[in-house]
Design brief:
Elements: H1 13-19, E1 29-38, H2 54-57, E2 71-75, E3 78-82, E4 88-93, E5 97-103, E6 107-113, E7 124-133, E8 139-141, E9 147-152, E10 161-163, E11 167-172, E12 177-182, E13 187-192, E14 196-201, E15 204-209, E16 212-217, E17 224-228, E18 230-235, E19 239-244, E20 247-252, E21 257-262, H3 266-276, E22 284-285, E23 292-297, E24 300-309, E25 316-323, E26 331-333, H4 337-342, E27 350-354, E28 357-362, E29 367-372, E30 377-381, H5 387-393, H6 398-402
Antiparallel strand pairs: 2-3, 3-4, 5-6, 6-7, 7-8, 7-9, 10-11, 11-12, 12-13, 14-15, 15-16, 16-17, 18-19, 19-20, 20-21, 22-24, 23-24, 24-25, 25-26, 27-28, 28-29, 29-30
Length: about 400
């Protein structure tokens, strides 16, 4: 997992997502988790009630720093409010703010220096600011009703955060702890972990900690162990996807069912990839970033396998999909899609699949591209100059893959 880049905040929207203000990413979604990255996006925790105008704006329900009306970016001492398409609406002065934490339709949450802090004590607090919809359809921040929710420190700069009117959850990075704070009871539940990710899905906490998948009711302190789980992992509003020794699985939170979607283990998929990519018999290897990533989009799970041929070969990718709706289990090879986005001699990989669009960053050309899986067309764009940039950033976990 990426480490905190500190509370340095850049102006760009990317940095805003990276930390909520300065460097976050939401982590491997495991793929989406970055997909493996970790990927997250349904990245994290699914925020608010979703994007009400997503059909109109072309945006999915994956934001951590947005609600139905606006996107938010944090800079030191202020918060920028944007439309869902990325247009700057207003800057709000919040002198103590240093990173965003979470946004829903009722509140904006941010981390900032506390009123009791002094030169000897570096204390941060989580603040909540009530939101009200204005006549123009944008949020109005009711700053006079701003409150300190709880002290907070070393928030994991990835997708591990959630807040509502009752609970606040985050990963404490330095001591590697999962923390759940009950605002009503003023009580903290802490769990020591080595590594992991969590999401709030269907009113339940679904967490992958230290090689196990667990589920907890929001109002409970007890964890239910589901089984072995490894990276990569990702999730959406109803399901959590992960890997174990048997293959790639889906835990349906709503139904309480754990299903094997891809029955081939990683090693078997690697051999299948070599055959499909035409590199069978050659010396293939995976790159330092890991070799498999998971993404989910519109009832499909995507598996990306990253590889190179030879010691100095460019990084290539093979992409597979499973249409898991209605019990589908067929694993489809998405022939040459990523090749089309980069060209023959590329070194790169898929960043995410959002709204049936497969996004990549072309580092040397300093631009981005997506392949529309439905229209079968390629679109090229620059950051901040195209609505697709904000659509791509809707998965907060994608930021990790862009660093």
């Amino acid at each position: 997992m990426k480490k905190i880049l500190t509370y340095m905040i850049t102006f760009s929207f990317l940095a805003g997502l990276l930390s909520g203000c300065g460097g976050e990413y939401t982590g491997k979604s495991g793929g989406e988790g970055i997909a493996s990255g970790t990927a997250v996006s349904e990245a994290a925790v699914v925020s608010g009630s979703g994007i009400k105008e997503k059909a109109k704006a072309g945006l999915p329900m994956k934001y951590t720093f947005a609600n139905d009306r606006n996107l938010y970016i944090c800079n030191v001492g202020n918060v920028e409010q944007l439309s869902l398409e990325g247009e700057l609406i207003r800057e709000w002065d919040l002198y103590e703010a240093n990173q965003l934490f979470y946004v829903d339709n009722e509140y904006l949450y941010y981390v900032g220096s506390g009123g009791e802090a002094d030169e000897e004590t570096d204390v941060d607090f989580l603040y909540s600011v009530p939101l009200r919809e204005g006549e123009d359809g944008n949020d109005i921040l009711l700053l006079e009703k701003k409150k300190e929710v709880t002290d907070i420190s070393y928030v994991e700069m990835e997708s591990n955060r959630y807040a509502d009117s009752r609970y606040v959850m985050w990963k404490e990075e330095i001591e590697n702890k999962f923390i759940k704070y009950d605002r009503k009871m003023k009580k903290k539940q802490e769990r020591k972990i080595e590594w992991g990710q969590f999401a709030v899905i269907c009113g339940k906490i679904v967490a992958c900690f230290d090689g196990k998948l667990y589920v907890q009711e929001l109002e409970s302190d007890q964890w239910q162990e589901i089984g072995e789980a490894r990276e990569p992992f990702t999730w959406n509003a109803e399901c959590f996807f992960y890997k174990n020794k048997d293959g790639y699985r889906m835990y349906d939170v709503k139904k309480g069912e754990d299903i094997l979607l891809i029955s081939e283990a990683s090693e078997d998929m690697w051999r299948r990839m070599e055959k499909d990519e035409g590199v069978e018999g050659k010396e293939t290897r995976f790159t330092f970033g890991g070799y498999d990533d998971l993404f989910c989009d519109n009832d499909k799970l995507y598996l990306q396998i990253r590889y190179s041929v030879g010691e100095d070969g460019a990084q290539k990718c093979a992409l597979y999909s499973v249409d898991y709706k209605n019990g589908g289990r067929e694993v489809k090879y998405e022939d040459q899609i990523i090749d089309k986005l980069f060209g023959d001699n590329y070194s790169g990989y898929c960043l995410d699949v959002i709204n049936d669009k497969l996004f990549v960053e072309r580092e040397w050309e300093q631009d981005y591209r997506y392949y529309d899986l439905l229209a079968k067309k390629i679109h090229t764009f620059k950051e901040l100059e195209d609505p697709a940039y904000y659509e791509m950033q809707s998965d907060v976990r994608i930021a990790e893959r862009l660093w």
